[in-house]
Every structure is written in C-alpha cells, then in structure tokens.
C-alpha cells in the first residue's frame, strides 16, 4: 500500500473552457472581452474571458451588470452540445492514458499518479499529457501537481492561464502561507468575512490558529479549514466510470395504454431523479427510457445530451425518447427513466437562455423539496386531484421563495 506522503495528484483544468471553445470556432474573438450566456438583460453570465474579467466581470453575474461594466463586450449564447462533445473528447484522452482519474466537472480532472516516479517521473508524464491534450483538442489547459487534491487545485489556479506548477512534497504549507484565505477551496465570501473580522487574512495566520478555537468559531468546518490551511488533504481520487447512473422505474398495478397517465408518470420520474442529480451536484450526459409491454417484451432507447440537470430540459428529451420508443401500441406494464454519464457540475452552466428568475425558481423549488420532501412540490401535469389525496396545508413561510 502506498503511504500517504508518496501520493502524486495532478489537477487538470481547461482554461475558460466555454470561452476557449468559442474562440476555437471563431478566431476573431481571441483577445477580446467575451461573455458566454443569455443575450437578454435579465440573463446571467455563464463564463467570461480573462479580458472581460479585467472589468470586474465574473460568472453568475447578471448580464445587465456585466454590460454596464464593459459595454463593448461580445456576447455568445453558448452551445452546450459542443461543450459536452469537447469535454468527452478530452475525457477519452485522459481515460486512455491515466492509471486512475476522477472527472470532477465538465472541465476539471484529478489524476492519481502515485508510484509513477519509479518509472516515468510524475512531472514529466503530466507535462507530456498536457501537451498531447492541447495538440489533440486545440484548447488551453493548466495543471497543478502536488501530494493531494486540495493543494494541486490551488496550484492549478496559480498556474493559469495555460500553465503548469509542481508543489514538491513538504512544501505545501510554504506554498499556501502567503495567500489570502479565499484561495482555499470552498472558502466563500461569508466564511472569509468571518475570518477577517477575527484578524485572519492569510492562510499562514489561519494555519496558526489553534484547531480547537477554529472549531469553536465554525464547528466541524473549522477543523476542515485548519487542515486545508496546513496543506493536509487525504481525500482520494474517486475513479470515474461512465456507467454510473441514477434511475427509477414504475410497474403499474394494471397494464395500461392511457397516454395521459403514462406522460404523467414520465414527468413524476424525471422530476424525481433530476432533483437527485441537483442534490448530488451532478449533471447527466445521457438519458435512457425503458418500456415493458404486457407480453413482457422490454425495449430501451437512449440519447446523448448536453450536460444538464434541469427539469424542463430533461423532460423534453425523455418525452422525445418515449415517443420514438412506444411503437407497438400494446398495453404497457412498466416504464423507467435513467440518467447516466454523470459528472460533477452546477446546473446553472446549462441555462444560457434562462433568466435570473428561472435560476431563482430552481433554487426555490429545491429549497422547498429539501425542507418538506420531494413530493411536496410537483408539476401540475402530475398532480393528484384534490378528491383523490389530501395534501398538507402549505406553510405560510414558503411563499417568499417564489417572489422574483
């Protein structure tokens, strides 16, 4: 068994992935302030170029605000199908060469290269892989190489744009020490503000705060922060398997050909597992629909899609698959829906044409489902009539979540 201190973890990150793909399609966009997102004033910025960032623009910013900061910015609506295709191409390159890898998002990968120093040299091997990815894809990519995932990710951020950086074993604390606390992954604005109010501004200062005091300030999160500030992270690289999936199916008490009922079941099942995707902060790149007829013949059909976990996008594809699949006009005994080719990611990246209201609506729906149960809120097409089921009286405090 390889000792922890001998680990070699590389973190690869495609630089401004959506922007880079757009520039690859149109050379005239290179070197210009480019925004990827919806074109309406109420849309949000899904991604922006480094040139746009100089004006203070960042992802998830309202497009209207971004255009006030940089009126001459160029907007592209985004093409998730193309981005997903490029992501899969790079995944295949890494899968063919890496001994163990984790696809942590549509544009990020962790590689466990532990033990390779005995044969090739981890830095040499990783450098050659980076060159090959850029040669094959035509896209810029950066990497950080360190003894754990957290330090390698920070190293990648420091290596950008289009660079590489190795942090040798034993140098983790020195590397992190001068950085502001916000550089630690998962330290957001609120946590950083709490730390700064207590005089903790750099990672070095944070590493010197007694762990018991940090725990008193922030609970278990304080212990995690102390470990990260000291360059400690023993989280494993989780092997990535395309066959990982989330699925559900329903066998009916009586075989049916009632299309309204079947469509209602598709809505219910799609909503259910789309919510599970968002709970796990994952996106799906493949949908499968299954039908079992009254004579027990079972058929399935699937399609690859741009990565998503949004109900309205997934439901459209599920219905499309069902329409193509249901061709025997026999009574149906069972239907099922499965999402596979899962990657980590936030559903907002697929909402290029959606407004802030749509994003807020998804957040409100998930908040209510988390609080009261996933079946408390559902689409009207799948709702059970009042005379068939008694629903609890909606709490008075849920309505503010729907104010846009």
TrEMBL record:
A GO BP annotation: error-prone translesion synthesis
Main location: cytoplasm
Site (Substrate discrimination): 18
UniProt KW Protein transport keyword: no
Record's keyword terms, sorted: Cytoplasm, DNA damage, DNA repair, DNA replication, DNA-binding, DNA-directed DNA polymerase, Magnesium, Metal-binding, Mutator protein, Nucleotidyltransferase, Transferase
This enzyme's EC code(s): 2.7.7.7
Subcellular location: Cytoplasm
Main enzyme class: transferase
Catalytic activity: DNA(n) + a 2'-deoxyribonucleoside 5'-triphosphate = DNA(n+1) + diphosphate
Residues making up the signal peptide according to the UniProt record: none
Swiss-Prot/TrEMBL cofactor(s): Mg(2+)
CDD domains: PolY_Pol_IV_kappa
GO molecular function terms noted in the UniProt entry: damaged DNA binding; DNA-directed DNA polymerase activity; magnesium ion binding
Binding annotation for Mg(2+): 13, 107
Active site: 108
GO terms under cellular component: cytosol
Co-factor: note: Binds 2 magnesium ions per subunit.
RNA-binding found in the keyword field: no
HAMAP family (alphabetical): DNApol_IV
Subunit comment: Monomer.
Protein family per UniProt: Belongs to the DNA polymerase type-Y family.
Function: Poorly processive, error-prone DNA polymerase involved in untargeted mutagenesis. Copies undamaged DNA at stalled replication forks, which arise in vivo from mismatched or misaligned primer ends. These misaligned primers can be extended by PolIV. Exhibits no 3'-5' exonuclease (proofreading) activity. May be involved in translesional synthesis, in conjunction with the beta clamp from PolIII.
Name of the protein: DNA polymerase IV
Biological source species: Chitinophaga solisilvae
Upper taxonomic lineage: Bacteria, Pseudomonadati, Bacteroidota, Chitinophagia, Chitinophagales
Gene name linked to the record: dinB
């Amino acid at each position: 068994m390889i000792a922890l201190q001998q680990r070699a973890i590389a973190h690869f990150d495609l630089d401004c992935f959506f922007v880079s793909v757009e520039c690859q399609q149109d050379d005239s966009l290179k070197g210009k302030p480019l925004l990827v997102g919806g074109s309406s004033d109420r849309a949000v910025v899904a991604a922006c170029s480094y040139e746009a960032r100089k004006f203070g623009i960042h992802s998830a910013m309202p497009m209207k605000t971004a255009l006030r900061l940089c009126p001459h910015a160029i907007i592209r609506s985004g093409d998730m199908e193309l981005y997903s295709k490029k992501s899969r191409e790079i995944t295949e390159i890494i899968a063919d060469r890496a001994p163990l890898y984790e696809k942590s998002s549509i544009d990020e990968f962790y590689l466990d290269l532990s033990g390779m120093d005995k044969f090739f040299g981890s830095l040499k091997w990783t450098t050659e892989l980076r060159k090959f990815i850029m040669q094959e894809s035509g896209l810029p990519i950066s990497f950080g190489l360190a003894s754990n995932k957290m330090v390698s990710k920070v190293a990648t951020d420091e290596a950008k744009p289009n660079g590489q950086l190795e942090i040798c074993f034993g140098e983790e604390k020195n590397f992190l020490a001068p950085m502001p606390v916000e550089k630690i992954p998962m330290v957001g604005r609120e946590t950083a503000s709490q730390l700064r109010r207590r005089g903790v501004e750099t990672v070095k200062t944070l590493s010197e705060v007694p762990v018991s005091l940090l725990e008193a300030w922030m609970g278990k999160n304080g212990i995690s922060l102390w470990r990260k500030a000291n360059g400690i992270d023993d989280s494993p690289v989780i092997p990535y398997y395309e066959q990982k999936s989330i699925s559900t199916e329903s066998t009916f008490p009586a075989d049916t050909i009632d299309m309204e009922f079947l469509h209602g079941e598709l809505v219910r099942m799609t909503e259910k597992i789309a919510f599970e995707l968002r709970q796990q902060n994952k996106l799906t790149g493949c949908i499968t629909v299954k039908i079992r007829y009254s004579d027990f013949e079972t058929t399935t059909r699937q399609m690859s899609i741009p990565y998503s976990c949004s109900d309205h996008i997934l439901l459209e594809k599920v219905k499309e698959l069902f329409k193509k699949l249901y061709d025997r006009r026999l009574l149906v005994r069972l239907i099922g829906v499965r999402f596979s080719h899962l990657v980590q990611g936030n559903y907002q990246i697929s909402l290029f044409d959606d407004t802030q209201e749509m994003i807020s609506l998804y957040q409100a729906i998930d908040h209510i489902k988390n609080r009261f149960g996933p079946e408390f809120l559902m689409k009207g097409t799948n709702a059970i009539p009042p005379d068939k089921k008694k629903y609890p009286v909606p709490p008075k405090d849920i309505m503010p979540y729907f104010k846009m």
